[in-house]
Amino acid sequence: KAGVTQTPRYLIKTRGQQVTLSCSPISGHRSVSWYQQTPGQGLQFLFEYFSETQRNKGNFPGRFSGRQFSNSRSEMNVSTLELGDSALYLCASSLAGPGYEQYFGPGTRLTVT
Amino acid sequence: GENVEQHPSTLSVQEGDSAVIKCTYSDSASNYFPWYKQELGKGPQLIIDIRSNVGEKKDQRIAVTLNKTAKHFSLHITETQPEDSAVYFCAACPGTASKLTFGTGTRLQVTL
What we know:
Largest sheet of chain A: 7 strands, mixed
Number of helices of chain A: 0
Largest interface: A-B, 25 and 25 residues
Number of strands of chain B: 11
Helix content of chain A: under 10%
Shape of chain B: globular
Radius of gyration of chain A: 13 Å
Strand content of chain B: over 45%
Distance between the termini of chain A: 37 Å
Distance between the termini of chain B: 41 Å
Largest sheet of chain B: 6 strands, mixed
Oligomer: heterodimer
Order of helices and strands of chain B: EEEEEEEEEEE
Helix content of chain B: under 10%
Structural class of chain B: mainly beta
């Protein structure tokens, strides 16, 4: 079974721009969660989608948004990028949600200059 | 909300020795506790997990124990090998649709 895939793997953007990251979960998994990982803040929860509905959201500004499609693929968008948004963005998929086994993708490394 | 503390932040052991990483959580409603291993340049990999109705779980050289009363859980790795070197994260979750809160990570180095 194929694992979680994330595209692109690396991205360099300029402050003020916007970016869209994509995540394809493991086949059959309906829950997709997004996390931001930085050396200073560690792994922080952004949001979780299940069957196209956002069920939970972390403490991030409204510039961070996401969506999930009917095939369970998910995208997250960050608008008006700031230098502090530079991070590894990780996607995790699960059959039913974070309370079940979650499997992470390799992440997208975003650098904002 | 949930708060997870993890200790130590770094751990160095000799090959063949055991390693123990400890975590405490604050939300008594948390009932799912996974452990992840993250190697350089990769996403976290689920290595073992435990639910609140179980006190201990073992998978080959890895074991996890849970003390619900004290709100702490630990990862035990026996007979460590160089390939065990990585950053390990504990996490806690209060329910299927709730969010996973991670500890700050432990950098484990296994030396020859």
